[in-house]
Amino acid sequence: MKYLVLISFVVGAVLVYLLASASANTDLFARNFPYLLAVTGALVAGLLVLVGYQIFQLRQKIRNGVFGAKLTLRLMLMFGLMALLPGAIIYTVSFQFLSKSIESWFDVRVDNALGSGLNLGQAVLDNQQRELTKKAESMALSLADEAPTAHIHQLSTLREQYGVQEATLFSERGKIIAFAGNERVGMMPMIPSNTVLWQVRQQQPYARIESLPGGGLIVRVVVPVNLLSFTENIRVLQLIQPVPAKLADDAEAVRTAYQDYQELSLSRLGLKRLYGLTLTLTLLLALLATVALAFLISEQMAAPLRALAKGTRAVAKGDFSQMHPVHNRDELGVLTQSFNRMTRQLADARNATEVSREQIEKSYAYLENILANLTSGVIAFDEQLQVRTINPVAEQMLGIAVGALRNVQLYQWGNRVPALAAFANALAEQFKLHGTDNWKRQIELDSSDGKHTLLAHATHLPSGVDNGFVLVFDDITHLIKAQRDAAWGEVARRLAHEIKNPLTPIQLSAERIQHKFASKLDAADAETLARATQTIVNQVSAMKHMVNAFAEYARTPAVQLEALKLNSLVREVLRLYDLGPDTELALTPKLPLVMGDATLLRQVIHNLLQNAQDALADNPAPHIVLSTAQTEDGVSLTIRDNGPGFPPELMTRLFEPYATTKPKGTGLGLAIVKKIIEEHHGMIRIENVQPHGAIVCIRLPAAREETV
């Protein structure tokens, strides 16, 4: 674009110079001026298209909101106006001056003078022509009176007598009969044309002023020579007299000037239009070239501002890499240099901020890593007890989704997660009770897998840090259970030791009393003694059974793990029971092997199956389902019945000793089962099903990849 405008500007200047030169040179004007006008018009049209394209581009930039486009438009208008006003004034003055100058060329006096000069020259030439015609007629009469044989001699005499340069006598067909001339005449006379000969034969003389090929004028007169003899045809006499050179040149100059003047006079309006068109094209050429050049200059002036605007937008978006070269040392250059300096300072500041942010992120990631790997739940609150940070362990303990409580106030936990309402109220009560003091409490948490006991410890953060609170809590349910199991084991051990020893003497003494005194009493007393003695023996047997159960719970045998087939173990235990149609067996084939103690796992299956049968004692349509399945990490055994299920109040302590629904049960069966499963690194889960029944599910880890 820039080079195209510059080339157009240079070509336009050359064309203007050529137009001025062509108007000053008549020959060049006549030959090349139309072509110059055509080329100039084409250049003007090209510049008009170029300016139109520039305006279209500028309009698109303004529509698209390109920075600096409006400034470019303003500068173009200013430059165009600056070029238009002087150009219009010069154009108007030049056009008026040219019109008046052309009119002054065609003055009436000049016209009259040229006409008079032309008439004067023509009168002189006509006079010579008349005189030569008279001489020719006189010579023709003289020749007519003579005999044809004397015409050759008579012609030379008459030529000298009348002072004619050349005299030639032709036949009526144009054949030369006699020729006479002075020393300036050539060897051959000028032959009249057939038209001239025909005119003369019609008795009409021919007289003309003619131009010679080499220059100059002559007067030619051709007249008939009518002979008196009837045997001879007429002859033709031609006289040629040259016009004086000075007179011929003057007459030709006057004639040429008058002819040119008449041509110019006829084209006076065309000249005005032509010169007006030249001025108009020159003005348009200058104006359009100026506008196109103004567009480039405006673009050059707006380019630094556009670059600064682009850099400003980049800085606003956080990109501080925009550095613009400084080409000039003017105010825009100083502004660009200042912008570059500001950008570098902002980049340095951002880099420093990035370094600080990275350090903070590393510290935060380090803290997050620590919190994520803690076995304790950690929750950070602000002053309004709104959760700011919660580690994954805390979310896992509370049984909530990741981020469910983030930015949620403690008092609104119940609205967000209804299961945490009681736990949140207990925490809120402790915070309200202790204020900014540190506190430590055990708080119960109800979850889907039972009730958990959490040991919560709250600490108030210093005011300079965050002025909030940090709550750390641990699930001590297993610890409490382990302590309770240990206590029950100790009780069972002491009961087994303290109670079992006197039971045998009591039973033996009762049997001895019956054996010794039964024969000495009457029938009624003997029956009473037998009944009392049997009661003592039965109760002692019941107490022995209970003591044995406590002893078994207290005693933890060493687990002997080996690879077992769970399906085979289940079938082996079921052979001991008389199973009817009420028992359904659904064993999945090709289960992985499990690592377990066969004796202890038999006891587990026996206890669970016995509990299911006891629960269905009063059920008119009992149904038990034993099933095995493969899980992600092992094998599961499920026993399901359609009995009454477990009471809701016992669901949280079913695995505690002496927690039972049987009238005569010890409550140690499920506790022993859970203890054995935990020794096998497995899990046990109990839940009620709707509309009635219970499910006991045991999961054991797989031994290896083999399947059977």
Topology, pairings included?
Layout: H1 2-24, H2 26-63, H3 69-105, H4 108-145, H5 151-162, E1 166-171, E2 176-181, H6 194-201, E3 206-211, E4 217-225, E5 235-242, H7 245-266, H8 268-316, H9 331-373, E6 377-381, E7 387-390, H10 392-398, H11 413-416, H12 421-434, E8 439-447, E9 450-460, E10 469-475, H13 477-517, H14 523-554, E11 562-564, H15 566-574, E12 583-587, E13 592-596, H16 598-615, E14 624-630, E15 634-641, H17 669-679, E16 683-688, E17 694-707
Parallel strand pairs: 12-14
Antiparallel strand pairs: 1-2, 1-5, 3-4, 4-5, 6-7, 6-10, 8-9, 9-10, 11-13, 13-17, 14-15, 15-17, 16-17
Helix pairs in contact: 1-2, 1-8, 2-3, 2-8, 3-8, 4-5, 4-7, 8-9, 13-14, 15-16, 16-17
Q: What is the tally of beta strands?
A: 17
Shape: rod-shaped
The major β-sheet equals: 7 strands, mixed
Cα end-to-end separation: 85 Å
* Rg from Cα: 70 Å
Instruction: Indicate the proportion of strand residues.
Output: 15-25%
Helix content, binned percent: 55-70%
Overall SS class: alpha+beta
- Helix tally equals 17
Which properties best describe this structure?
17 strands; alpha+beta; rod-shaped; single chain; 708 residues; 7-stranded mixed beta sheet; 5-stranded antiparallel beta sheet
Question: How would you characterize this protein structure?
Answer:
With 708 residues, the protein is an alpha+beta fold. The chain is 57% helix and 17% strand. The protein has 17 helices and 17 strands. Strands 11, 12, 13, 14, 15, 16 and 17 form a seven-stranded mixed β-sheet that branches. A hairpin with a 5-residue loop joins strand 6 and strand 7. Helix 13 packs antiparallel against helix 14. It is rod-shaped, with a radius of gyration of 70 Å. The mean pLDDT is 76.
